[in-house]
Write a structure and sequence with these properties.
The chain is an all-beta fold. It is built from one helix and 16 strands. The strands form five sheets. The chain has a four-stranded antiparallel beta sheet, with no helix packed on it. A four-stranded antiparallel beta sheet has the order 7-8-9-10, with no helix packed on it. Strands 11-12-13 form a three-stranded antiparallel beta sheet. Strand 8 (79-85) and strand 9 form a beta hairpin. The protein is globular, with a radius of gyration of 16 Å. The protein starts with a strand and ends with a strand.
Length: 192
């Protein structure tokens, strides 16, 4: 079914819970919260892993929420970026403060695919798209902390990364993962 999330115990491969959720598109897990982008609904749903019930919901200014990114571990403080498809060529991205249950649009761009935050919550960048594939160059790193303080983001360095699939970090440090690629640095470049 399209309006449900299944919670699977990976040790036993059994479904331990089923959660009603409108049009889940992307899932982000932080602490005891599961944060879900609801595509076509213009909302982000937050579920508690203690009860698997809806804990919060935040409404964005665009309906097609398709990607979420936030700092990880102890760096996560309730702030995330949500990418929303506006039309065939453009995306808007929003700063979402889950503690205050507020979202505000930060920017709109043509031909971007997603906006990604680093594990430490220092920077973010957008990844372009070529023919609806997220494989265009990565932008220069921008200041995520400025966004969380409701200021315009400033560039934190110069240069544009190379074309890559959607990248992410699993811990603090210089390494990024994307599909079958290992990248390093800011902006991320293929590790050699």
């Amino acid at each position: 079914e399209y309006d449900k999330l299944s919670v699977i115990d990976v040790a036993t491969a059994k479904v331990v819970a089923t959660v009603n959720c409108p049009s889940p598109r992307h899932i982000l897990c932080r602490g005891n919260r599961v944060i879900v982008a609801n595509y076509g609904q213009g909302t982000i749903s937050v579920y508690s892993t203690d009860t698997w019930r809806l804990a919060d919901k935040v409404t964005l200014g665009e309906p097609n929420v398709n990607y979420l990114s936030a700092p990880g571990g102890r760096n996560y403080a309730g702030h995330l970026l949500a990418t929303c498809r506006v039309d065939r060529q453009s995306q808007a991205f929003f700063h979402v403060d889950l503690r205050k249950k507020k979202a505000r649009e930060v920017d709109r761009r043509l031909y971007i695919s997603v906006v990604t935050v680093d594990y430490d919550g220092r920077c973010f960048f957008w990844q372009g798209e070529i023919g609806h594939s997220p494989s265009a160059p990565i932008s220069e790193p921008l200041d995520f902390r400025a966004v969380t303080a409701n200021r315009p983001p400033r560039a934190l360095g110069q240069g544009v990364g190379e074309p890559a699939p959607i990248v992410y970090q699993i811990r603090s440090g210089p390494f990024w993962f994307g599909d079958k690629h290992l990248l390093r640095g800011l902006p991320p470049r293929t590790f050699k």
